[in-house]
Amino acid sequence: RVAPQNCGARGAKLAVIEQQQTTSVIRFEVIDSGVGMSPEQLETIFQPFEQVGDTQRRSARTGLGLAISKQLVELMGGQLMVTSEFGKGSTFWFEIPFTVVKTVTKAQPEIVGKIKGYKGKRCQILVVDGQLENRLVLLNMLAPIGFDIVTAEDGEQAVYMAAELHPDLILTDLVMPVKTGFEAVNEIRQIPEIKDIPIIAVSASFLDMDHNKSKIIGCQAFLSKPIDQNKLFALLEQYLPIEWVYEPIDDMGLSKNGTISSQTAAIIPPPPEEMEVLYELAMLGSMRKIRDRAMFIEHLHENYRPFANKLKDLADGFQEQAILTLVESYIN
């Protein structure tokens, strides 16, 4: 952004500028009529930590947005361009060639039952993310099933820790301060002792990449946020020498001795207004709030206890899609 929120209008354009039988070139354009930039500012605007605008607004930002956007566009085969006139506004654009293909749905590796551990040597995983809560999500997913988790909060720490510890696998965000995930991965791939460590990029869903683009930046795979636990576990099994160990499946309400208890024989859902609250929380992916709500429902009436227990188990396992499916099944 180069326009203050209280100055100027913004707009976006999307157009197919060239279309052939197998490829299409699409132009993405963002326009604002804000403060604009001088020729001197245009020369440095794509450099990390460079900002324009008033001092108060600049202090609230990192100055990394355009530098990261430029890297992403180049990964997709384009070039981020800008024209600007001081006092009148700016236009940013890029053109990307896309291959025209038929949509094919690939079957995802199926994980049956709840994973309680794995066979094989204990593996160490380096988790790299600029946000503490994101690091904790992965820590809480992986540490309870036997992984040795170490964390870093930026790309610079990631390179240092990877060189020191030689972890079995790295999970890294791409957009971070100090040093981005792109830069960290590139540096790790230049160090002979650690260049072959499997790296899985983890970032927001709007940055979603296919397998080939992940390879371009030096990663074996890409995982979008919020993290789908089943997809994560499937990737870990693919890139680590492990075999999952599962808990017995209890979807039929089986107790530990294999009999059907009277309590779980029938799951009674809470009132519709509670289901609507749970649906909103499931869409937000807030496992902590879902668990808190399940505890609230548990005390509404003893009949709701089996439902609440099921919900807590899924929340503890970060089973976002399973929670959404459960809630939708009762709403519908």
What does this 3D model show about the protein?
With 332 residues, the protein is α/β, with parallel strands linked by helices. It folds into three domains: 10-99, 2-Layer Sandwich (Heat Shock Protein 90); 115-246, 3-Layer(aba) Sandwich (Rossmann fold), CATH 3.40.50; 272-331, no CATH class. The protein is 36% helix and 21% strand. It has twelve helices and eleven strands. The chain has a five-stranded parallel sheet. It has a four-stranded antiparallel sheet with strand order 1-2-4-3, with no helix packed on it. A two-stranded antiparallel sheet has the order 5-11. Strand 8 (169-172), helix 6 (181-188) and strand 9 (199-204) form a beta-alpha-beta unit. Helix 9 packs antiparallel against helix 12. The longest helix has 13 residues, at 272-284. It is globular. Mean pLDDT is 78; it is low at 1-7, 56-61, 105-111 and 251-265.
Give the overall silhouette.
globular
User: What class do helices, strands and sheet pairing give?
Assistant: alpha/beta
How far apart are the termini? Answer: 42 Å
CATH class of the largest domain: Alpha Beta
* Major beta sheet, strand line-up: 7-6-8-9-10
Give the helix level as a range of percent. 25-40%
Instruction: Determine the mean pLDDT.
Output: 78
Which percent range describes the beta-strand content? 15-25%
Q: Which spans have pLDDT < 50 for at least 5 consecutive residues?
A: 1-7, 56-61, 105-111, 251-265
Level-2 CATH architecture of the largest domain: 3-Layer(aba) Sandwich
Largest sheet: 5 strands, parallel
How many strand elements?
A: 11
Question: At the third CATH level, what is the topology name of the largest domain?
Answer: Rossmann fold
What string, H for helix and E for strand, traces the elements in order?
A: EEHHHEEEEHEHEHEHEHEHHHH
Q: Count of helical segments?
A: 12
**CA gyration radius, whole angstroms:** 24 Å
Q: Give the tally of structural domains.
A: 3
The CATH superfamily of the largest domain is known as Response regulator
